[in-house]
Write a structure and sequence with these properties.
globular; 19% strand; alpha+beta; 3-stranded antiparallel sheet; GIY-YIG endonuclease
Length: 111
C-alpha cells in the first residue's frame, strides 16, 4: 500500500492587506511555528509575516514546488484574490492549540 504524502503551498501575511510570503513545506504546522518564532526566514522575521492566510495541499512534491514558483511570479493582485476567495477577512488559519493539525485545503490544488 502506497504511503500518502502531504505537501503544502502556503501564504503568510503580516496583517490584513499586509506583506505576503509564499512558501512550500511538507510539515505546515512546524513551518508556520518556525515563522512565528522568527526562525522561519529572515524575510518573515523582518516584516512580521506570521499569519497563515491561505494554503493548498498537494500529494506530489513536484506539483507543490511548481505551484509555489507560479504563485511567486504572480502580481500581488492575483495573490490577494486567491486569499480572499476562501478567506475574505484574512483570518489566521493556523490553529492556536499546542499540537496543531492542518489537513485538507481551503485552496484549490492544481490551478
Amino acid at each position: 500500500m502506497a504511503r500518502e504524502h502531504n505537501y503544502y503551498v502556503y501564504m503568510l501575511a503580516s496583517r490584513l492587506g499586509g506583506t505576503l510570503y509564499v512558501g512550500v513545506t511538507s510539515d505546515i504546522a512546524f513551518r508556520v511555528s518556525q515563522h512565528r518564532e522568527g526562525v522561519g526566514s529572515k524575510f518573515t522575521a523582518r516584516y512580521g509575516v506570521k499569519r497563515l492566510v491561505w494554503y493548498e495541499h498537494h500529494s506530489e512534491i513536484t506539483s507543490a514546488i511548481a505551484r509555489e514558483k507560479r504563485i511567486k511570479k504572480w502580481p500581488r493582485k492575483w495573490k490577494v484574490q486567491l486569499i480572499e476567495a476562501g478567506n475574505p477577512n484574512w483570518a489566521d488559519l493556523f490553529p492556536s492549540s499546542s499540537t496543531p493539525v492542518i489537513t485538507g485545503s481551503p485552496g484549490q490544488a492544481g490551478r
